Task: inverse folding
DNA sequence: CCTCGCTCGGGTGTATACAATGTATACGGT
DNA sequence: ACCGTATACATTGTATACACCCGAGCGAGG
């Protein structure tokens, strides 16, 4: 745990991560007013990086600037989460279709290895599970030629709401094995080199009925 | 032209709009280094709003921060434009499917009126054509219940690359009438209340083969 | 009692000064 | 001649101070 390598990233990024993770964890309730100066004092930094962080949060829809009152933390209803999930699934399906049949043998081997590794992760380590899951999806659509689409999806995986989905709704060892099973199914579908098959399997795996609500 | 109502928006927004429009117009070439202090001096403002503007540009993929050199303007190949367009079309199709059958009679009347009005716009007024086109699409998917999806699409219409598409590749009176025709086709499809029909018409209208390249 | 206007305070927008970091260049050793 | 290193420079990150805007609360007048 010894942080021999000090975090050298900009303060704005660290402040942003802290606030967003507090929001999705529920530590900061919806409706709370985030005031630049208060937040700055709380983290022992100046208003400048706080301003950057709050701007980012607003851009992502987690907060709203209310004149004269500060940045208000938006409510995140289950419907909002579903909405984000639906868009993400749609784009991921598009990307997978385009990536279909373009995976190199090395990439396929690597994907298979990632699933195996995924199953060995400590079920309690939500952060690691999240990272590995995102890595699998990233590798899956890596051959997709649409760069903008790949970047958009990468941003959505890093999106706080996506984290909220994973951390809140997807927990426990049984879910870990379900995800591993889904990923194996996806790899099976990949063998067919048929975009429709891939999309169909993705639709099945992303079916929110058993993960959300 | 008398600016009786002074622009009261934040400087960061105005600087951002100026730079992004200069980029898509080609006034600022790809590879150009945007240095905070230089830009600030150029517009007669301080570095703070310039910083905000450049951050926004980076977030949207129009520039990249290169340490020690400044913000470098990214190249925008026709392929990049196509990529953005494809994602936009995909999401718009999804939104239209969900909005299908949910339009109130008033909304349908309004949509029809917008198409008529669109045809009366001066073909040389690219800015107005862009605004009206965006308004039509916004009204089209307005009943879509997925708020996140609606917001995402709204952001994409305002995206500089979308402006580039409209301003660069879609010009002239014949294109104006083509768009009006397409919009009428979409309205016809709306009558069927069938999501597949809508999606099919959208796919036809968004076929980039005759508008891009 | 209601309404209009004014002052006051909280909050963000903007400007400027300072600190940290990474790059390019020049110089000396090999 | 080449490579490693140290130094100077360019650029962004951060902190602080000032200016503007908006809303709330209070008081005077109808």
Result:
């Amino acid at each position: 745990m010894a942080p021999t390598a000090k975090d050298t990233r900009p303060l704005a990024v660290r402040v942003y991560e802290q606030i967003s993770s507090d929001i999705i964890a529920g530590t900061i309730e919806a409706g709370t007013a985030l005031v630049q100066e208060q937040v700055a004092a709380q983290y022992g930094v100046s208003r400048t990086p706080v301003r950057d962080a709050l701007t980012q949060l607003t851009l992502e829809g987690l907060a709203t600037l209310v004149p004269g009152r500060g940045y208000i933390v938006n409510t995140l209803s289950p419907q909002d989460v579903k909405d984000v999930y639906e868009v993400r699934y749609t784009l991921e399906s598009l990307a997978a279709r385009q990536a279909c049949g373009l995976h190199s043998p090395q990439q396929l081997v690597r994907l298979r290895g990632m699933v195996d590794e995924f199953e060995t992760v400590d079920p309690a380590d939500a952060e690691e599970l999240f990272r590995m899951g995102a890595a699998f999806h990233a590798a899956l659509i890596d051959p997709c030629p649409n760069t903008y689409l790949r970047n958009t999806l990468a941003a959505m995986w890093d999106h706080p709401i996506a984290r909220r989905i994973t951390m809140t709704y997807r927990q426990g060892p049984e879910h870990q094995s379900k995800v591993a099973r889904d990923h194996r199914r996806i790899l099976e579908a990949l063998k067919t080199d048929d975009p429709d098959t891939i999309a169909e399997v993705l639709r099945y795996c992303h079916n929110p009925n058993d993960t959300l609500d």
Observations:
- Chain A touches chain B at residues 52, 55, 59, 61, 80, 83-84, 86-87, 90-91, 94, 146-149, 151-152 (CB under 8 Å).
